[in-house]
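idk why but the lab printer keeps eating my pages so im just putting this in chat instead. protein + S-adenosylmethionine:
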Amino acid sequence: MTTSNPEQFKVATRQAWEKSAGGWNSQTRHIHAWLAEATEAMLDSARISSGMRVLDIAAGAGDQTLDVARRVGPGGHVLATDISETILQFAKDNAQQAGLLHVETRVADAEGLNAVEASFDAAVCRLGLMFCPAPLKALQQAHRAVRPGGYVSVLVFSEPQNNPCIGILMSTALKHAGVPPRDPFQPGSLLSLGKPGLLDELFRQAGFEDVSTARVSAPFRLNSAADYLTFVRTSASPIMQILGMLDQQAQAAAWAEMEEKLRTFQSPEGWEGPNELLLACGMRPVTD
Ligand SMILES: C[S@@+](CC[C@H](N)C(=O)[O-])C[C@H]1O[C@@H](n2cnc3c(N)ncnc32)[C@H](O)[C@@H]1O
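predcted complex ->
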């Protein structure tokens, strides 16, 4: 899948997440533990506090939406948006089950949110912006949605060398599919916003001030490499799309090789896959 036709790319992204929605939701416990510290840092950098109105972009099954909703309290409001209706339904159900009635959901492409101008105090986007073929458009939409003085904060993966598991998955999948290595920073891909300096530049171009990016270590701790591959299988990872080109036997061979390589991260205490995220934020100028 390439971004030469952004609209087709987004249709494919939506379809992939529609299919993987249940799988991603079923992994919520692991995802929550994996991203707990990074999520707290994201909410802090967006200056989210009691009573605020917050926009959650590419909210998925709503794990971070619930964190935001708890932080703003019943006097606040959270709008969770996502391109996939099915995954957003999980976010809605999860919020209801948690008794968080001040959460609303709306299906929307991050690049075409069309939110009412300045209608939110802050916006967040956890592991979603990198899937946008035109991330600048998405940041411009977020910029428009927050009030002057409001912050937008996002989490994405950093460079390939600091996310070795993604590299192992991708190179093994491509090798088995007989496809040449790809540019890891290809727009719309998992690591597309990991290029040093790129996010800051995009935030500035979108009109933000007080822009900063910090590295956040987010190791993924599970029992085994096999558990990590279960997580990958249940997500709409590009790995699934690449392996989808192969027959069952060839897929099984690719998974087996990935598991063997990923065992490097096994220790007597369990499996710990290194991951590094970038936490970027910026403020809509007060004078806007
Ligand atoms: C890795 S999941 C992250 C979900 C959630 N934020 C979390 O951290 O658990 C990526 C999400 O981005 C959504 N997404 C991908 N492209 C999008 C776009 N252009 N606009 C809105 N959402 C998008 C997918 O549907 C999916 O729910």
